[in-house]
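Structure first, sequence second, as always.
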C-alpha cells in the first residue's frame, strides 16, 4: 500500500503520512511538492475527500543535500524551481489554518495544529534557526529515531525535544500500530531501519 502510494507522493514517508491521515492517526500533514507533482497529489486527495491547501510561496533548498531542513522562501512568481508547501486534512479549516500559520512564521500554532507535543514545539521555537537547522539528537529508541529520515524511514514528522520524550514516543507507537494494521511490510521495514 505505502510503496504504491509513494509513486503518487514521491516518497514512502509522505505516503505513510497520508495513510496516517486517512486512518485518523493524524489530523493535518504538511509536505513539500514541486508544481509538476501537485496534480497527482491533488487528484488522490480529492478522491479521498481530503482538502489540499498550497502555500502562497515556494521554498528553495538552501544547501545541496538531498534532504534538507533549511530553505529559502521565494515568491510564487519567481522562475526558479522551488517546492510548494502543501497542507492536507479531512478538515478544510485546519488545512487553511496550517497554511496561514506557516505564512505568518507562527511555528508554535503550526506545530500545535500538526499535532506535535507542546514540549517539542517549545524546543523547536527556542532552538531552530538558519544557523541551527538540524535539531536531530542521538537516537535511543525506534519511536523517536529521526536519524534515518533521509533514507525514507521515520515515524515522526517533528524534532523530538529529546530522544526519550514520552509524548513523542506515544505518537511514534501510535503511528507504528496504525501502520501495522494498514501495511505490515512498511511497519517491518521501519522497525528494521529504526532499531538502535
Amino acid at each position: 500500500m505505502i510503496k504504491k502510494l509513494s509513486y503518487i507522493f514521491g516518497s514512502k514517508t509522505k505516503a505513510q503520512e497520508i495513510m496516517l491521515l486517512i486512518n485518523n492517526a493524524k489530523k493535518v500533514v504538511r509536505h513539500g511538492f514541486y508544481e509538476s507533482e501537485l496534480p497527482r497529489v491533488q487528484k488522490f486527495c480529492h478522491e479521498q475527500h481530503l482538502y489540499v491547501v498550497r502555500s502562497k510561496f515556494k521554498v528553495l533548498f538552501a544547501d545541496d543535500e538531498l534532504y534538507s531542513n533549511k530553505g529559502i522562501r521565494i515568491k510564487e512568481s519567481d522562475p526558479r524551481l522551488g517546492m510548494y508547501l502543501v497542507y492536507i486534512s479531512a478538515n478544510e479549516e485546519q488545512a487553511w489554518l496550517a497554511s496561514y500559520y506557516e505564512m505568518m512564521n507562527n511555528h508554535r500554532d503550526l506545530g500545535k495544529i500538526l499535532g506535535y507535543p507542546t514540549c517539542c514545539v517549545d524546543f523547536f521555537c527556542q532552538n531552530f534557526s538558519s544557523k541551527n537547522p538540524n535539531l536531530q539528537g542521538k537516537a535511543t529508541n525506534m519511536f523517536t529515531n529521526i536519524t534515518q529520515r533521509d533514507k525514507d524511514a521515520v515515524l515522526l514528522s517533528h524534532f523530538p525535544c529529546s530522544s526519550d520524550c514520552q509524548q513523542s514516543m506515544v505518537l511514534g507507537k501510535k503511528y507504528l500500530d496504525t501502520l501495522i494494521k494498514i501495511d505490515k511490510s512498511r511497519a517491518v521495514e521501519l522497525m528494521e531501519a529504526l532499531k538502535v
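Margin note: The chain is about 45% helix and 15% strand.
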